[in-house]
Protein: 1,4-alpha-glucan branching enzyme
Organism: Hufsiella arboris
Amino acid sequence: MSTSNQTHDHNKIKAWAEERGGVPAKIKGTGKDEDEGVLRIHFPDKSSDDDNFEKIDWDDFFQNFDDNKLDFLYQDKKADGEESTFHKFVKRQ
């Protein structure tokens, strides 16, 4: 059985992403004015959809993450024990 975790700790999020080859990104065309757009952790080595993502730096990523009071919901391992890249952003409670 796989379990998920939830955090807003910047160091945990960055470490989780980088261990899996993930980079901070936004989905192109989703931002307005000062808004960065929809945040994602993008895994370039595991995706054929690179054209839809714009890499951003961690400072910009976490500024947007905190401004929107988000938490990071993530999974370390899949049910079969394989490393997981499952994640999503949820409103912080």
In short: The chain has one domain: 4-91.
